[in-house]
Amino acid sequence: MSLILESLKGQKLLLVASTGGHLSQLHRLSQRIEPASDSLWVTFEKPQSTSLLSDERHRFIPYISPRDYAGVAKGMRTFRSIMAEERFDAVVSTGAAIALASHLPAQRRGLRTVYIESVSRFDGPSLTGRILQRFPRIERYAQHPGYDSRRWKQEFSVLDTYARDDSWAPSNFPRKVFVTLGTIHPYRFDRLVDRLVAVAPASTEFVWQLGSTPRDDLPGEVHTEMSSAEFVREANESDLVVTHAGVGTIMGLLDLRRPTLVVPRRKSHKEHVDDHQLQITREVASRGLAVSAEVDEIDSDTLTRAAAIRVL
What is the pTM of this model? Predict the structure, then answer.
């Protein structure tokens, strides 16, 4: 175990993360840390967090979107109240904007604060990370080498636990395809939806989890969001999962050993706040864990190649 994770073992922690990939990473790390049972999770109320934290002490607060500084200010008031109500040994976060709302008040109270940058950030910190690195007492950890070593330490990556299963060899074109687009508001991903409908055979059985891209013109079964149990069932019953490059979704699908096509959202098409999804897309592809493609590169051959890869 890394030194930072070992140092948090058994402590009462205030565990803070946005829903999605940030929460998935922190939850996985918490299983290695094994914090005290009275630790408190703070995040947003979504099907993912409701399912994932059902057996944990938790508190849901209003959603804070990227670059929502008014939301951060409101969140800071909430965290000041939480920290006044009970004592914590440390505040730990994997981002995103909610980390500003928790870590800045914690610093003022003299609490130990730990920020772990997302595994999707390869070339340098996110905006949240860049802001927090201005505060020298905040402990900052990257999951990839190459960061400024004066400001960041690097000890682990959650991707190191996966390897390609070379024995996997499906025989047919993916008959059933599960598409999951993520719930980050207000960013839509219509380009991917339209491309899949255009290139997949008419016989393809689709199940859609559209999140922030609601549509009423699609073939197959359509959902806005799903519980974790519903998501797992649909993923396991599908021959291929097509996902935006959200790190939490990717990790969940790798855990399920599902053949996956990873497609990055692009800032130029107003699908995300920046192009950081390109980084995690390239990383999982370079490790041989999944097939990746830009939207306009996807064709029926792409779907066939993606269905031929799964992990151990």
Answer: 0.73
pLDDT, tens digit (0-9, with 9 covering 90-100), for 225-266 = 888 889 999 999 999 999 999 888 898 899 899 999 999 999
Condensed to tens digits (0 to 9), the pLDDT of residues 198-210 reads 999 999 999 999 9
Evaluated on CA atoms 186, 247, 70, 133, the torsion sign reads negative
In whole angstroms, give the CA distance from residue 271 to residue 273. Answer: 7
> Is residue 120 pLDDT above 90, yes or no?
no
Closest CA to 245 of 276, 200, 286: 276
Domains 3-161 and 176-306 agree in fold: yes
C-beta atoms surrounding 274 within 10 Å: 12
| CATH topology for the 176-306 domain | Rossmann fold (3.40.50)
User: Rounded CA gap, 151 and 200, in Å?
Assistant: 47
User: Residues 243, 245, 248, CA angle at the centre, nearest 5°?
Assistant: 90
Burial per residue of 33-54, b for 16 or more beta-carbon CB atoms within 10 angstroms, e otherwise:
bebeeebbbbbbebbbbeebbe
- Report pLDDT digits (tens) over 89-110: 999 999 999 999 999 999 999 9
